[in-house]
Each structure stands twice: as C-alpha cells, then as structure tokens.
Amino acid sequence: MMNWFNMSARYGLTPTQRFQLRTELATIHVTQGQNDTVDNFAERVEQLCNKLDMDDEEVTTHRFIQGLRTNIKQHVIRSTPKTMSEAVSAAKAEEGATGTSKVQTTSNVEEAVREVRGEVRKLSEAIGRIAVTDEVAALRAQSSSQGLQML
User: What's this model's pTM, rounded to 2 decimal places?
Assistant: First the structure.
C-alpha cells in the first residue's frame, strides 16, 4: 500500500510540496453520486488524479474504491482488485447485478425529449383540427338557420 512517505520519496517531493499535495488531496473527496454510473465516476476519478499529476495506478484505484457507493464498494473490496481496470470491472458487475445504475445517458434523454415533442406536435395538430371542425360546424349551423347552403 502506498503511504504519503513512500509516495513523496517515489516522486522526489520536498516537504513543502508534500504538504501542498496532501492538503489539496485532503480537500478533494470524490464520491460516487446517487445518479453516477460506475463508468462516469471512474472517469471523474482518473481526471482528478491526472490533474494532480498522480499517475500511480494504485493511488487512483484506491481513490476510486473509497469513493464508490457503499453497496458497490463492499463488493469491489471483496474482489481484491489489483488494478483500476479490475476495480472498475468489479464495480460494473455489481452495478449491473443490483440494478443500481439508474442514470439515463444524454442520448437517451435527448431521444425522450424528441419523442415528447413529437407527441406534443401531434396533439397540437389534433386540437387544431378539432377547432376547425367546430368552427365549420358552427358556420354550417348558422348558415342553415339563415337559409344559406354551404358547400
């Protein structure tokens, strides 16, 4: 397991740099939100570690596992992953098995919006036809009461 002393020695950090890095990492606690998929969360963790120039897979994997939702985290820890890829795979397996991924992708949401707009358009057209039909019926009734014939 990588600790702060080993990590700082490995990267050749000065005590001041170690303090700054530790402070920055301590203030950034990444957790998987209720609507985050495992893939989205893994990408966020990797981006954060890249931003901090933390290219150590062990550190990235640890941050990922610690930030997972509890039910998924427990499964991943039991699977004892050695790499980020193994941790993500275990998390995705648990996510799929428990149905915890309730997130709609952007394309799914966009498709749903298009479908709703299409239905609204159809309803608007139907309402327009009903209004025209009512107007024609009213005009016919009015013209017949006045003795006029409509075509």
Answer: 0.50
For residue 75, the one-letter residue type is H
Residues 92 and 30 in one domain: yes
Could you tell me which of 80, 75, 65, 66 has the C-alpha nearest to residue 96?
A: 75
- Asked if 150 and 143 count as a contact pair (C-beta separation under 8 A), the reply is yes
Examine the domain organization and report whether 12 and 66 are in the same domain.
yes
What is the three-state SS of 103-138? CCCHHHHHHHHHHHHHHHHHHHHHHHHHHHHHHHHH
Residues in the chain with pLDDT < 70? 1-11, 18, 21-29, 51-55, 99-112, 120, 123-124, 126, 128-129, 131-132, 147-151
